[in-house]
Request: fold
Amino acid sequence: MLAITTFALYAQNDGAITNIKQRAVILDTVNIDNSFSDLMPLKPVLNNRRIVGMGEATHGTHEFQATKFRMFKFLVEQLGYKLFAIEANFTECRKVNDYVMYGKGDARKAIGGTYFWTWKTKEMVQMIEWMRVYNNNKPDTAKVKFYGFDMQFDRGALASIKEKLKKVDSGYYYKNFKMFDTLTICDTSKLGYKKFSVKKADSIKQLLRAIDRYAANKLAALLQFFSPTEAAYLKQDIKVLEQCLDYDIEISNGGGFTFNAHRIRDKSMAENIEWVLNFEGPASKIMIWAHNGHISKTGMGSYLKRANQAQYYAIGFDFNKGGFRAIDLSNGRYKLSTFTVDDAEPGSSGNVFSQLNIARFFIDIEGLEKTRSAARYYFTTKLRQRGIGAGFNTEQEGLFYLKLPLFDEYDGLIFINETTPTQTM
Reply:
């Protein structure tokens, strides 16, 4: 409490709020139909980046999703980005990409097949439909693509691998990979995880390695039935199952969603993003969409930062007050609900940013590094920031603040003073 009080006095007496206001880029709107005139100051900041990470302080905020859609459109039309990737399963998101690229299927059904309520929104469908329209009458090389980079669930990867292996040689499959035909790693319907003995886990890993070797040796046969892209997907789907298994083992045998479980997931998601970039080639550029905790330079973003240095730019989101959707965690309800919170607690980042009296703004935190301004001091000071994921509990609202220096977490930040909930599709 003393640190917060000290900083609040510093901010008032030594000009941190004034410094931040001088450097803030005012964002005029979250409406994607408006011009990009307000975003143009971001061009020199984001130019020469290969990966832009876009976070969110809750999974259920309209303004966060709408702003990220607008940012992706800006990156595509102004900076030549062609790749989009989201915190959803790698394999399942290929159906969304089929729609975006070729108009196959239905946007709502495709995004609905990614399991999470968080992405089943009108905002997400609107972005997917825009991507589809953008791709009309363009060659594949000029189209935008939709990827997932998560690895929590096994169903999609299992089905895709089975289909391909059986197509190449069903007799060999049933003789050598029969165990794979009934394999499950997690219960997707209940978002649950299975408990494996060390022996069972080792046998699954050995099976996956054997399938990986077989796929490599049978590449010519695979290419008789599938495109080079689908052949590459096969090997990555196997990798996703390995990641899913490691994550499952840590959760089910290691005591739940431990720090190590989070690190396994963050590392795996970063590896999958790197796979996408390597697959798409050295000129490829991508915007990734995930929670603040993942895109941050201490989460998944730490791996991306280590591998890509300044080419990775992480943008966090913050807010002061308003509405959002989340799973109600109070009294064991576990029901998707709409919440409204009042002004952020005194001294927190949301509270201090609200004192700028700007509805929406972006600030380049990275650009403050070489200054000696009060604003730089602010971003290197530990303070409380709202961090709400898929769930929320109004009875324990104080637990949904994280105490951290924003400079350690993000390269840039977007603040929305007042928010509203996402809209169900």
Notes: The CA atoms of residues 99 and 105 lie 6 Å apart. The radius of gyration is 22 Å. The chain has 18 helices and 14 strands. Residues 1-13 have pLDDT under 50 and may be disordered.
